[in-house]
Specification:
Shape: elongated
Strand content: under 5%
Radius of gyration: 16 Å
Oligomer: single chain
Number of strands: 0
Length: 51
């Protein structure tokens, strides 16, 4: 399954900067999601006693 999100900025400053800062926004989002994924994996491993 592929899920595709089409995200649009809601803040004026993000809309204004998105043509230039779009790659930085994308990178920051991907980094945040990776950290969240690892945090969830760690949490679930602790809850089940696995690692």
């Amino acid at each position: 399954m592929d899920i595709e999100w089409r995200v649009r900025p809601t803040s004026r400053w993000m809309t204004f900067l998105s043509p230039i800062a779009g790659p930085a926004f994308t990178y920051a989002h991907a980094a945040l999601m990776r950290r969240g994924e690892q945090g969830l994996k760690d949490y679930l491993a602790r809850r089940t006693g696995q690692k």
